[in-house]
């Protein structure tokens, strides 16, 4: 957690992991138990033809979530093919998939001062996501906790050298980045301009 959200992470004496303070949650009470949940039908149609383009019924969301927010999350971020047992059926499954993956990683790598601190981190992060205090970027929701590569950055900057091989590799790298749900920008400063080519007697890398 960061200081901008009011959390007060600090290291114990000797630097052995983070001590996490509670902000929104109560000891002994899971954040899910503080919320009223309801089942909703998510149906999207083509506004021109009326054709149903997405349908998932009986998904579970907090009662204070808007229909638009529920639709975006169900259509974009739930993992698993619609109509299969692997399909996520509600916000709890989505949040648990991401949060518990991060908590496990934190424990495995010794980030927390104690198991209690790990639990507080889990509860505070869960509360913040359920109550829309903040949200991860799309690649986190797409990838974390799945069998997909754990790509979590929203944007990459690709550097392209002044050679045909590098220019062609740019398309390959950008395609892999898009496949993981992220975007890319380019640094083309190493590619020579036409004026530089003429003055040096060089040949354009694209020729």
Span between N and C termini?
51 Å
Poorly predicted runs are 1-14
Number of domains: 2
On the 0-100 scale, what is the average pLDDT?
84
Shape annotation: flat
Number of strands: 6
Largest sheet: 2 strands, antiparallel
What portion of residues is helical? 25-40%
Query: What is the string of SSEs from the N terminus onward?
Result: EEEEHHHHEHEH
Backbone CA Rg: 23 Å
Strand order in space, largest sheet: 1-2
What oligomeric assembly is this protein in?
single chain
Q: Tell me what portion of residues adopts beta-strand conformation.
A: 15-25%
Helix-and-strand structural type: alpha+beta
- Total helical segments: 6
Give the gist of this structure.
This protein has 207 residues and is of the alpha+beta class. Helices cover 35% and strands 16% of the residues.
Name a few traits of the molecule.
single chain; 207 residues; alpha+beta; 2 domains; two-stranded antiparallel ribbon; two-stranded antiparallel sheet; 6 helices; flat; disordered N terminus
